[in-house]
Amino acid sequence: MKRGWPDRSSFLTLYIPVLICRLWFIALGKTVVDASSAVKIDELSLSGGPCSLGIQWPHAPAVRCCLVLDGELYQQRVQMPAIVDALMQTGQIPATTFVYLAAGDGIARHRDLTCNEAYTDLLMREVLESLQRRIGTIEHFFLCGLSLSGLAAIYASVRHPDRVAGCLAQSPSAWWNDEWLMAAIAPEQRLHGRYWLSVGDQEQQADLRHPPTGLHQATSQWDSVHRLASRLKTAHAKVHLHPYAGGHDPACWAKELPTALPWLLGTPATSE
What we know:
Elements: H1 8-21, H2 24-27, E1 40-46, E2 49-56, E3 64-68, H3 71-76, H4 80-89, E4 96-100, H5 106-112, H6 117-135, E5 140-146, H7 148-159, E6 166-170, H8 176-184, E7 194-200, E8 208-210, E9 215-217, H9 221-234, E10 238-244, H10 250-265
Parallel strand pairs: 3-4, 3-5, 5-6, 6-7, 7-10
Antiparallel strand pairs: 1-2, 2-4, 8-9
Helix pairs in contact: 4-10, 8-9
């Protein structure tokens, strides 16, 4: 499952400053959420320098952490922090620290979120280890993403099955590179995590080019997500495929979170 990306030292030198800069809007506090679910700005120490993150602290001590890719979209368009706060306040999900990581511009998304081995290792090693130093012991680590970041979340979960307890992938771009990720998961592979995948019945378009890099989508979101879910099941993962009525739409992703997050994280009574 390797791709021709820069080696780790080169990646850290080149991209850590970019990672820091692309979180500018979080650092400025440009989120639209209820005061009770406000995301706090925090800083991690990485080898390439400090990294600002949006952290939503739970109301009780937590050993769970969910790293949310495309954090700017989840905060501003999906309104995830308010949904998370309501679910924790009502006891529908256990205490969990949510960390929102921005993806940056379109070029950065197409580079980093398309099964990029070096970027994934940065997340799963330096970012995760730094988070543990900042927020304490993490016994259960989860990933969340949408569209391309949904693809990236699944890739990281498959690449690091010993570190990721579960993955929420909303309309993941499983079509990328002629469904490379689906083909890369060997049927004999044993995955033990939980995977919630969703896709809308209006996501039927194929043979598309996505700006700004002209990323080619040969197959539809609908078909490719169904095939990826089937392959994950073959690899012994616990998979919930949620086909919903709608398209590639933040409103649809927000609507399913009150069901998806309890399934992924577990309720306080059943999650241990």
